[in-house]
Amino acid sequence: MAQSNAAAQSTPKSATNSAAQVPAQSAEVFSLEPHAAWGAPPSARYEALAARFRPVFARIRASAVERDVQHRLPHEEIRWVREAGFTRLRLPSERHGFDATLPELFGLLIELGAADTNVVNAIRAHLGFVEDVLTAPEKAWREHWLERLANGETIGAGLSEAGSAKVGTFATHLTRSAQGVRLNGTKFYTTGSLFADWVAVGAQDGDDTVYLQVPRNAPGVEIVDDWDGFGQALTASGTAHFTDVAVDPAWIRPTSTRFPYAVPFYQLVHLASLAGIGRALADDVARRVRQRDRVYSHGNAARVSDDPQILQVVGRVHGAAYAASAISQQASRALQRSYDAHLDTNATDAQRQHATTEAHVEVDQSVSVITRLVLDASTELFDALGASATLRTAGLDRYWRNARTISSHNPRVYRERQVGAYAVNGEAPPSFYRVGKS
Q1: Closest CA to 14 of 60, 72, 73, 80
Q2: How does pLDDT run across 221-239, given as a tens digit for each residue?
Q3: DSSP secondary structure code for residue 191 in this structure
């Protein structure tokens, strides 16, 4: 994979909710209007909210196969998303946001995932950081970042490491001297950082774990696009090097506490991506069957579109996509309840904890089902098409490659075990995940 340290596209600091200027669409644009049977939207206002972003989604989808084949990173596409205000969805209206609920956010993520899951994954860390800001108890820190987010600034990932640090610690660390605070270390899976203004970093400060936001263009910061996965290849989920980076103490968050539903939130972004893949491949196979004029002599009709066995395949993958979307939306409502309980001054600690535990369990219960549905559908769609569908230029292989890669995060076998432990013994799932040496 070619390495690149190209700068991310700059984003105008918009202080309005005016519609973004989206480039004129090409002649071949896939319609991303909701399928008639995808189900009711998550809110009464959802269609009006989604109308702002669907032209952007359609434009992103139109070049998705070309980008995948050419390995062209979606700098421009992410700029469109930012300019349309998508990264400000959850911000309050007085901060130039849209006051979107979590079900509304995840409904739109499913639609964006149908366009290109690389883009969803590239803004995943940013969306999680927004939740950190919205729920933060530290008023000064919260207000500082609300202002930056309102101006369109974005955050990339810089938490995971591939080195020898033990579980629960980071090899990346801060040092303090008379010359100030310095950051040194290497991160992997730095998804979205190449496109962002800031990198959210986890580091050791002596015996303490701290979280800080570092400008992507700060001296000593290098983001390398060396991700070599067979799927999600355009997320720039590669390596970040921090070499004697001078740290402004204001970049360090006053506490290491994350938002209470962080684990299920980040996982549900992946599930929304999978649901989006399901919708895209279901639409794709239906369109290709409708247009196909070559038939097999041992088929069941003069036209493929009339062959009942082929229609059964199309129906099966549509059913999988429908179920994946419905389950994702159901789980998003559990996250909303956790968010609401966390901010409810009248709620007890027990009520907040119960809402958070339920959010964890509902997402854990969703993981294996959605994963199986979409992985199966991404293979079964080929049963409705001929060998020409396997051409790289058709782009149908990317559905399985992307779904398989997304599904490899936080293995589903552990989610099933956690659900069983809760159902049998009342054992709440862990609220904090880390990877490292034992």
Answers
A1: 80
A2: 999 999 888 889 899 888 9
A3: T
